[in-house]
Design goal:
With 355 residues, the chain is an alpha+beta fold. It is built from ten helices and nine strands. It has one domain. Helix content is 29%, strand content 13%. The strands form three sheets. Strands 1-2-8-5 form a four-stranded antiparallel sheet. It has a three-stranded mixed sheet with strand order 4-3-9, covered by helices on one side. A hairpin with a 5-residue loop joins strand 6 and strand 7. Helix 1 packs across helix 2. The longest helix is centred in the C-terminal third of the chain and has 22 residues. The relative contact order is 0.19. The structure holds iron/sulfur cluster (2 copies). The site of one iron/sulfur cluster (SF4) has 15 residues, from helix 7. One iron/sulfur cluster binds next to helix 6.
């Protein structure tokens, strides 16, 4: 099945790896289910141009919740895999996830899985007469098409029944497994979910509802056919955690694991790997399936000299946090003080690397 219009036709006669298709799918499931979607210039030849107005704002699939036990069993098998990271931040992120019907919503009948198109943004940080244009991946700022907005969309455009209940469970379920098994997307070699028309530039959400939808079986687990004859993401990954031989990424080496969490960066992390205020998009931008989509971005409000200096000094006073909450569309409430040392460290590394 084609995944986009960029010429990534299935090529069933290619032999991408020595692994059988079953082994490949099994491995991508183990890794892809668990690695958060927060993960991300080469191969710029023949990039297509995409009319932004043709990119869907969102896409969705529904699944009856009667599939939850099977999904939970699949998730448990993946979680027990010996190949997965035992790093505490990763385990902490994965442990609370599962396919459970909340005690206060036993009448739930279906889950609506939504992929919203998202763009990265750039922010100019000013310092000592210079301007530092820094990338902020979509996971780290609040886009207009966020969970609150999508809940309304699900209620109005998908469920379409007054009085029905819709509950956001996006932070409680393994979203990538749900997206793959609902037929909404495919795994790529970089462990991200690709959705037709928006590539990997999507954020996933899940909503429970008491609305029954027509019965649908679970989709076959699929990987992008294009990955079988492509090496762009594994060649550009700054920490070499994407493997050519299979679809398991080495989470312990992924930049995101380190720049999202507090603490000193490990010595082995190359200084040149830092390129975003948080997270990493290196393995998404050169992907041919993202051609024409990866080139789209937004811009947030500039951060003044005084604000930049306060960030670098690690001095989070209340007016600054309030301003950053508005300008960076992040840093809400109590979370802002916890995140601040991460912001100070990450911005410091980026500024020093460009001096
Ligand atoms: S470190 Fe590698 S796998 Fe991780 S997000 Fe960056 S490019 Fe992707
Ligand atoms: S860059 Fe190539 S190998 Fe990586 S996800 Fe995209 S198509 Fe697959």
């Amino acid at each position: 099945m084609r995944h986009d219009d960029a010429g990534c036709e299935p090529s069933h006669d290619e032999k991408p790896t020595t692994l059988s298709r079953r082994e490949l799918l099994s491995r991508v499931l183990m890794a892809g289910v668990l690695v958060p979607q927060d993960f991300g210039q080469r191969g710029r030849r023949s990039r297509r141009v995409v009319d932004p107005s043709q990119i869907p704002t969102y896409k969705y699939r529904t699944l009856p919740v009667t599939h939850f036990p099977a999904l939970q069993a699949e998730f448990d098998r993946a979680r027990k895999s010996a190949t997965l990271s035992r790093a505490k931040p990763f385990v902490d992120q994965v442990s609370p996830l599962g396919f459970k019907i909340p005690a206060d919503f036993q009448a739930a009948k279906s889950v609506v899985v939504v992929a919203a198109f998202v763009k990265p943004v750039y922010v100019n940080f000013h310092l000592d007469g210079s301007s530092y244009r820094i990338l902020v991946p979509p996971q780290y700022y609040k886009d207009d098409m966020n969970s609150d907005a999508l809940k309304g969309v699900v209620q109005k455009n998908i469920v379409q029944r007054a009085g029905s209940r819709v509950v956001d469970i996006s932070e409680r379920v393994p979203l990538k497994l749900l997206a793959a098994r609902s037929g909404l997307g495919y795994y790529g070699r970089n462990n991200l979910i690709f959705v037709e028309g928006m590539g990997s530039y999507n954020l996933l959400y899940a909503f429970l509802t008491d609305e029954p939808f027509p019965e649908t079986g679970m989709a076959q687990l699929e990987v992008l056919e294009r990955c079988r004859r492509c090496d762009h993401c594994d060649r550009i990954c700054p920490t070499a955690c994407i493997l050519r031989s299979n679809f398991i990424i080495d989470v312990d080496k992924c930049l995101t694991l380190y720049n999202e969490n507090p603490g000193a960066f490990p010595n082995w992390l190359p200084a040149s790997s830092h390129h975003a205020l948080m997270g990493c998009m290196k393995c998404q931008s050169p992907c041919p399936v993202n051609g024409g989509i990866a080139e789209l971005y937004g811009t947030l409000e500039d951060i003044s000299e005084e604000e930049t200096r306060k960030i670098l000094n690690g001095a989070p006073d209340d007016p600054l946090l309030k301003t950053l909450q508005r300008k960076l569309r992040n840093f809400k409430g109590a979370q802002s003080r916890q995140l601040f040392p991460v912001l100070t460290r990450n911005l410091g590394v980026l500024v020093r690397s460009r001096v």
